[in-house]
Amino acid sequence: PTNWRVLTIGGFAIVFLVKCAEVKSKLALKRLYVNNEVDLAVAKKEIQITVSLTIVIFFSGSLQSYFFAE
Fold first, then answer.
1. Phi and psi for 4 in degrees, rounded to 5?
2. Which helix (H) or strand (E) holds 13?
3. Do 6 and 14 form a contact (C-beta atoms < 8 A)?
4. Can you list the alpha helix ranges (DSSP code H) found in the chain?
5. pLDDT under 70: residue ranges of the chain
6. Cβ of 34: how many Cβ atoms within 10 Å?
């Protein structure tokens, strides 16, 4: 994305409005925060449901793990 702003912040996600030069359009980008295997399963299910909707196009996705030492 070349330009973005936060639309909303929730307990498990942030939704951004982004302007993507690649598709020359504005897109909603949702960043999900996953802290454990149960949350991961819920996030994957949400992605499956979202992709199945005809009004939503799934543009891209990735999984990243972050580990913090105390």
1. -150, 160
2. strand 13-20
3. yes
4. 37-52
5. 1-2, 54-70
6. 17
